[in-house]
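Batch queue: ligand-bound targets. Current item pairs a single chain with flavin-adenine dinucleotide. No template structures supplied; prediction is de novo from sequence plus SMILES. Inputs echoed for audit trail.
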Amino acid sequence: MTKPLAVTVGAGVAGLAAAWWLDKAGWRSVIIERAESLRENGYMLGLSGLGFETACRMGLRDRLEAGAFRIDENVYKDSKGRELLRLRYRDFIRDLPYLAVRRTDLVRALAEILPDTAAIRFCETIDDFVQTEDKVDVTLSSGETIVADMLIGADGFRSSLRQKLFGPDDTCLQPLGYYFSVYDVGAPKQFDTDFVSYAEPGHLAEYYALHDGRLAAMHVWRDDRPNLEQRGGRIDLLQAVSAHSHPHVRQLLKQTQHEESPVLIDSLTMIDLPKWSQNRVLLIGDAAHCLTLVSGQGAGMALASAEMLGEAMKVAQDPGTAFERHEFLLRPIITRLQSRSRKMAAVFIPQSAFAFRLRNLLMRYMPRSWLGRYFSNSIRAEIALAANMKQETMPVSGP
Ligand SMILES: Cc1cc2nc3c(=O)[nH]c(=O)nc-3n(C[C@H](O)[C@H](O)[C@H](O)COP(=O)(O)OP(=O)(O)OC[C@H]3O[C@@H](n4cnc5c(N)ncnc54)[C@H](O)[C@@H]3O)c2cc1C
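Prediction returned. Tokens below.
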């Protein structure tokens, strides 16, 4: 008997992981990716908690460890180069397992273990889809139509499938009031800690070395103006944001001007949808519930969500029932993470000089055991919640 077919939009963390778990549930996948290849640059991300556990169950630990970064200490300096803070990651995460990898390496590792039942179609997107009672007709941008048993939107934070499914984004976007930028600098590392952060009221510029010794950068700054990411002149924008930053920040930006590598700018915006599916179409990963980098769990939850989908598919008779089970398992965890992100966003990078100093003083003198308790206990609570939800019986939905 032919295996049922899932068409998945997006060959990112969520889309590739979903194909792996769907294969275990007896499904084939066609992954439609807009880009011409898997994205080759990428920021560093941390995997811990549920996402780390899923990665291990997928047999990815060794692959990821091979390219992982050793992150020990982050030194925060002010715009004059004076040391503000020294934070050790282990103080936050304590004894929990943790991996720091580039998004590129995670995506590449997922692509390497892609099962034979899945294929990626690059330079394609979908134009339209029509749901019938037992199928979804998916029309690709090339004009081809694929008749599938389900359609999955894993096309990231700016998902176009989400808008096709639920209409304009206005109500589900929740801007946190910040923008971020990530890019490779090209200059070699000139400091002796793992991370250096230049912090000032309203702006943080962070640097770490790639495996070849060159620097990668991330800026996060407060800005309530809409759609900055659509403007041209990205380096000009970063130069304006960094006008009063430490000279090192401005010098590295000048060097980046001559680099070919892309400069990504986007807003920190959460996605909060009342429902993630409709009949045979499901959204997963950032398309469904973008948590932003403030949570430090977006990729992890994309992995965990893919596993929950595969597990639900193994037992459900049809996609609709599996999607309900998937949402039943995942929703409480996402709700917790979103609430935590909202709280943390409020104090992430204080805008006023007074609030900035106060936050730094608190961080400097607060016992490390408090910080560790807050972060590692939160991650543990999410692992426990996922285990509890698995044991819970799903309520029967109304008519
Ligand atoms: C700076 C930064 C730091 C972060 N740090 C962490 C961290 O420490 N820990 C963590 O767990 N998470 C972190 N995250 C979040 C994490 O990167 C995301 O949550 C995760 O990548 C989401 O995966 P996804 O597959 O849903 O979307 P994406 O990874 O964005 O993938 C979407 C894919 O869909 C493709 N696509 C988009 N539109 C279309 C279309 N119309 N048609 C076809 N294909 C399309 C894209 O090309 C892409 O390949 C961070 C994010 C950022 C930006």
